[in-house]
Protein 1
Amino acid sequence: MVVSMDVHLPEESELTVDEVNLSTATLIASSFQLGKYCENANNEFMLCRLEEKDPRKCINEGKAVTACTLDFFRKVKKSCLDEFTQYSNCVDKSSGDYSLKNCRKTQGVFDKCALEKLNIERPGFGYFCEARVHNTKRPKPLEEPKAVYPDATPALPENADKKPARFGSRFYWMTE
């Protein structure tokens, strides 16, 4: 990638955070509760990405999403580890595409534990598709004015000699 000298790239220390080292099945099994638990941080990050149009300006919001995810899994490990492990193992081993339909019983057990011990209710079907207004404390970025470019090719003067087309008109069905 080629970058000019005036582009500021963040240092590696700014980008280094604890990673969420979990399997796909674990993330899919926890997706509904995790999405609900970290909804505010995730919405803040996505709003920043949409408004700023530059991922370098949203590093702190991204770190907040990762921190929220780690906090969620620490709480699940502390209070619902057995129920969650059964559910994620079922999601992992019951189908080749991590389908949830074969694991409804273990899902119900984990949902009940998450509601009772973590106070996180599993959101209803279509919850994450609903439109919402997100209130943020971050100031709205200033809109950049549209670039105005001078006309690259000047137009022909009005008194220029205009010869007829060399091979005739491309509109052959029109007659003069």
Protein 2
Amino acid sequence: MTADDWIQAGFAVLAEGGPAALRIGRLCDRLSVTKGSFYWHFTDMREYRASLAQAWGDLHDEQRRRFEESAEPDPRKRLATMLRTLMRPEHWALERAMRIWALTDESVLASVQHSDRRVRCAVRQAFIDYGFEPDEADLRSTVLFAAGVGLLHGSGSRRDVPAPLGERVLDLMLRR
């Protein structure tokens, strides 16, 4: 058992049950190990939660970096790829749980905000590359990002947004 095994189990538990579900016993049951294994890797639940938030931030930074460094010259295609990536069902539940957790934990909030800034910067750049002035690109990237987060939270238990909806939102945001 490695610390990463615990982190991956935490992501699964968090996605399934939210931050309240992060309990040592539940994690041990999921991994079929004793609490001693948990304490071998983490001093306490506080350290574990901090490690989990950090790992999520690192994972999303890697994904966001791909957005920023995309070689795709067509800004509409770049935006469509970002939307598809961020709206994948396997990404959906964990993203939603992290945002809920961020409401009660400042370190998680900082991680989510850092990640959000990177995404908005990449989206803003795509709007500029599409031909919008910087002020207009700021507005559109903020609105598109907020719409995505709204879809995330407004979906209830439905975890995927139909592709045509994403395309229609993108068409609307690119309209002059």
Protein 3
Amino acid sequence: MTWVYLGIAIVFEILFALGTNATQGFTKLWPSVLTLLAAAGGIYTLSHALLELDVSVGYTIWTGIGGVGTVVFGAIIFKEKITLARLLSFASIIGGAIILRVTSV
């Protein structure tokens, strides 16, 4: 269940980051409410994952994969550009997350 909680936390992290853009400085009610709920959900599910994961592993994977997901969905939803430098950065983050996962067993 630990990795399921972490996966859910990552989804909430991506929703939080994308939602923050939609709040327009927290001046839009419903995007603001959804963004705050996503933040709370992410922290809640991350806290459950950290019951068994080291914080250094769980938090790093949460922010790293959440960041990659945010960039990917930012490109899809907001038409942000994905450059070669960004692709190499994604590969580094994903590679690091995989190494953390394999070595934390």
